[in-house]
């Protein structure tokens, strides 16, 4: 993450996150690096559909695709970028091998990630398969994958 913070600082770019299954893990990784306050605009942990919607995700998108979808991850990433005027918005949703009685449907092993690039109005999206490991190990894997994608984007 140090490399990401350095590149964002050099490029005078900012980032904001809207996280669900990672519970603020990406924001935590960012804030573990000195100088993070220069680049991190805001972070929201939106575990519930209610707060995803309050933060800008369309209820209709959740109803059509389920909260666990790339479409919702994309809306999360754009909504947090719009809310904070950050150059990059990161949206993450998924169940990490857990059934959710409030949100049926979809694959419980998939994690959906979107990085919105405001300047280009484009998205980098990807899905990850949850490991057959602890929730903490899965969060760490998700964060490592996001760091790798950010390195590629910021090259």
Write up this protein.
This protein is an alpha/beta fold. It has one domain (2-154): Alpha-Beta Complex (Maf protein), CATH 3.90.950. Helix content is 42%, strand content 22%. It contains six helices and five strands; from the N terminus they run αβαβαααβββα. It has helices at 2-11, 25-31, 49-54, 59-65, 70-84, 135-154, and strands spanning 15-19, 40-45, 88-94, 110-117, 122-129. A five-stranded mixed beta sheet has the order 2-1-3-4-5. The longest helix is centred in the last third of the chain and has 20 residues, at 135-154. The chain is globular, with a radius of gyration of 14 Å. The mean pLDDT is 94.
Strand order of the largest sheet: 2-1-3-4-5
- Main sheet specs: 5 strands, mixed
N-to-C CA distance: 14 Å
H/E series, N to C?
A: HEHEHHHEEEH
Q: Given the structure, what is the number of helices?
A: 6
Stretches where pLDDT is under 50 for at least 5 consecutive residues are: none
Q: Mind telling me the CATH class?
A: Alpha Beta
Shape: globular
CATH-defined architecture: Alpha-Beta Complex
Q: Give the domain tally.
A: 1
C-alpha-based Rg, rounded = 14 Å
Mean pLDDT: 94
Can you tag this structure with a few keywords?
alpha/beta; Maf protein; 5 strands; globular
Produce a short descriptive summary.
The protein has 155 residues and is of the alpha/beta class. Helices cover 42% and strands 22% of the residues. It has a single domain, classed as CinA-like (Maf protein, Alpha-Beta Complex), CATH 3.90.950.
Mind sketching the topology for me?
Blueprint (H helix, E strand, L loop, with lengths): L1 H10 L3 E5 L5 H7 L8 E6 L3 H6 L4 H7 L4 H15 L3 E7 L15 E8 L4 E8 L5 H20 L1
Parallel strand pairs: 1-2, 1-3
Antiparallel strand pairs: 3-4, 4-5
């Amino acid at each position: 993450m140090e490399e990401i913070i350095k590149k964002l600082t050099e490029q005078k770019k900012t980032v904001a996150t809207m996280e669900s299954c990672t519970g603020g893990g990406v924001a935590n990784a960012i804030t573990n690096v000195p100088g993070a306050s220069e680049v991190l605009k805001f972070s929201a942990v939106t575990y519930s559909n209610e707060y995803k919607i309050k933060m800008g995700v369309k209820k209709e998108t959740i109803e059509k695709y389920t909260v666990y979808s790339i479409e919702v991850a994309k809306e999360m990433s754009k909504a947090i970028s719009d809310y904070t005027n950050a150059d990059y918005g990161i949206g993450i949703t998924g169940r990490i091998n857990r059934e959710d009685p409030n949100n049926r449907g979809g694959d419980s092993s998939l994690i959906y990630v979107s990085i919105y690039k405001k300047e280009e109005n484009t998205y980098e999206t990807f899905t990850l398969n949850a490991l057959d490991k602890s929730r903490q190990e899965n969060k760490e894997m998700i964060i490592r994958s996001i760091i790798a994608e950010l390195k590629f984007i910021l090259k």
